[in-house]
Amino acid sequence: MSRVESLDFALRDAEFPRSCMFCLRQIELGLRTLPRSSGVLDTLAGAHRFLARVNFADIDQAGLHQLIDHLQVYLNGVHASIAQAYFPALPGNARRVMQQSQEGGSTLPLFADGP
Hints:
mainly alpha; 0% strand; elongated; disordered C terminus
């Protein structure tokens, strides 16, 4: 298997469960069933487009490192979009309760409504 074929398989194969493209597609399928997913799906589509348009034949070793760096930036964006849509920052009181719990100063549940 050539270098180009190996990269294409590892990053873009639609049937190989460890390929990036396969994983992005699985994330997309899961998100389509959830509310508030449009922003995340847009971010995910950007990652998908980036990976789809890469010509592996034009990439040398330094370019491969740059490609992986860019791919990580896209994946971090997907992560951030999911976090923003489904795990928003805790309000001040809940954040304080969580911090006290971690420091051993409180036995209140993480999502307690009161102090």
